[in-house]
Structure formats: C-alpha cells, structure tokens
Give the backbone structure.
Amino acid sequence: MEGTLVVNGMIISSSDTGENDKRIVLLTRERGKVTAFANGARRPTSHLLSAVKVFSYGEFELFPGRNSNTLKKAEISEYFPRLTEDLDRIMTASFLSEVADYYSMENADETERLKLLYRTFQALSSERFSINLIKNIYLVRTMVLNGEYQSAFSVELSDSEAVMSALKCAERNPIESLYSFALSKEAEAEFERVVTGLRKKFMEHTFKSESFILSV
C-alpha cells in the first residue's frame, strides 16, 4: 500500500505503553531492527491483539511517521507456541531475543541474524535438543556474526575433541543445519565453559533476562 512500509521479520520485544498501546521491536530482513507502536493493541477487540506477541514471525505493515512507526496490520505465520509452555524455554527465548535486540542495528542487513534467531527458536521448540546447548551454539554464532570471535579453526580452545568439533560446527555450519549434534553432559559443560570464556572477551554486555535466569 502506498505510504506504508512492509517488512518481514520477528517481534523480539513487546511492551505495554500508554493506556491500551504496545511498543514492539522487530528484527526484519528489509530494515534490520525496527521499532513500531501498535495503537489500541491491548483492547480485546483490536485486530492487532494477537499480532503483537513476542516471538511472533510474519509480515508487518507499518506507517512511517516523523519520529516513529505505527503498526497498521500483520499477518503472522509462526507464533512458536512451544516457547511459552514452560519457564525454561520462555526465559531462554527472552534472553536470545534480548541478545538479538542488543546487537542488531537499524537500516542494516540483519538477514543472517534473523535466520539464526528463527532456526534457534525452531530448535528450542523441539525436545530433541538440550536448551543449554542451543543457547551456547547461538552465542557462538552471534559472536561470529558480530565479527568478534576467536576462531576454533585457528586456536585450540579446549583439550576435548568433541568440544572443538562442536565449536567449529557452531562457527561454520549453515544456519539451517546448525542444530544437528548433541554432546555428553561432560562435553556440554566444557562447551559452556569455553563459550563463557569467549563471552568475557567479546560479549561484555550484561543482559537483564540472563541475570534473571541466574537468580531463579
């Protein structure tokens, strides 16, 4: 529609504002990170009520204003309902979304970051994968996307062959097949130790959602 902006992406943040409105942050293919306001979206009769839920993926039609965007309508193709079925999944998904929100930029090509988050939420929705392993694979690939990462191909980060192989897969595998391996409990603990060390070097930011997870 003339005068509007149509973007495809995922809601990575959704918060109440005003009396009945919502403020959403989208991670999109076309414009990177985009913030928009959904007027009246909290009213029970609003056509936007179900379209402003966090983690929702679809097509969003926005009306660009002088200082902000207004959400006009949305066609949601995936809600990832499994992510809200238990506390561990919803807290992890919230943390991963906060990471994407922090590192994504407006008017930038964030296609790979969006693909990463979408595929990660698919994996997180399945019981085939360890939630903790998913989180750490996601963090490794995020550091790679950020351009700040100590490659496992160039330095020995662990004495464990399984962990080194996992790091290389997390770094180089196509996003579509990123979550295609499992580790023993011991190797998974070592993998997390290595990823935590890398984060201290390359991801110094403290995330509120992760602090909450650690306090529970």
About this structure: The CA atoms of residues 143 and 203 lie 8 Å apart. The chain has a mean pLDDT of 93. The domain at 82-215 is CATH 1.20.1440 (de novo design (two linked rop proteins)).
